[in-house]
Amino acid sequence: MTEFTHKQPELTDTRGRSLRDLRISVTDRCNFRCRYCMPREVFGDDYAFLPHEALLTFEEITRLAKVFASLGVHKLRLTGGEPLLRRDLETLLQMLREIPEIRDIAMTTNGSLLTEQRAKSLRTAGLTRLSVSLDALDDNIFMAMNDVHFPASRVLTAITAAQTAGLTPVKINMVVKRGVNETQLLPMAEYFRHSGQVLRFIEYMDVGNSNGWRMDDVLSAAEILSTVQKQWPLKPLPAQTPGEVATRYSYVDGGGEIGIIASVTRPFCGGCTRARLTSEGHLYTCLFASQGLDLRAHLRRGDTEEQLYELIAQTWGLRTDGYSEIRLAHTPGFQNKIEMSHMGG
Ligand code: SF4
Questions:
Q1: Can you tell me which atom of ligand 1 is nearest the CA of 327?
Q2: Number of folded domains in the chain?
Q3: Spacing, Cα 240 to ligand 1 middle (Å)
Q4: 253 part of a folded domain
Q5: CB-ligand 1 contact for 284 (6 Å cutoff)
Q6: Residue 2's pLDDT is what?
Q7: Beta bridge partners of 261
Q8: What is the CATH number of the domain that holds 132?
Q9: What's the domain range around 317?
Q10: Residue 187: is it exposed, middle or buried by C-beta count within 10 angstroms (0-12/13-18/19+)?
Q11: Ligand 1 pocket check for 268: Cβ under 6 Å
Q12: Does the residue 233 lie in any domain?
């Protein structure tokens, strides 16, 4: 494979946003059925997931990642579905970490398949950071949300395994839905205080078309903040990187850090530097997109790195995305959005 180097002035979209982060979905399958992402009514036993041959191979993912890297990407995040359902992920990590421009490879998982040994092998293969989804400590509430009767205790064990393996600080992502798990806000905050891990509260979003989203079910960032603040005073922290999605706070008493991801009530589209590559090789420039670019077709018909470079550069250059701002402005939303389990979150 020809070593591809292509230096051009910084690529930005129509709003001056650079391309810095690539989220790579390695599978559309998941072993959970979280109601806000993969409700069982839609993703039932007869749901037609992608056949293996439709998925990008590790070589194809790496080729594309190299082109994205030459366009300015230096952070990769592996997602799914549940990424650990894709076999031999360590092989992909070893290939991706060879890309000189890539400084950071993270992954988002539900933790169900993460043992200490696996955490260590992923770390050794090149994984640098990990986010684990956990929506409640109370098993009844957690099981009601993941809809597969998977106990929270096993996710907590996975989080400790990741910490032990050096994937620190582990970030814990908690989607908060009014009337379902807001009673878990304080128990979760208490559990992760002084743990060295970072708990992030995520506003419930209208991802995809299947979760029956209503604004009434959204517990806003302001409500989440005041709930925690009443118990433990917080102070704001500066963003760590441009375009960071979470607003960061630390406990005044030294209890650690939390984050709030408020796509609904405090859109952050203005600093959005993220592109998404689905497991079958489609490029999307927004989580709420309904249109994408089939890069797999270009790969498999033999396009050169140069041609792929021009294609992606042109797509990003024309990008205008700002769905969360549109949603907030109550402008009629997009129809037929790509499902989050397919897009990779
Ligand atoms: S809604 Fe789209 S443009 Fe806005 S922050 Fe999310 S992914 Fe980026």
A1: 1
A2: 1
A3: 19
A4: yes
A5: no
A6: 45
A7: 202
A8: 3.20.20.70
A9: 21-343
A10: middle
A11: yes
A12: yes
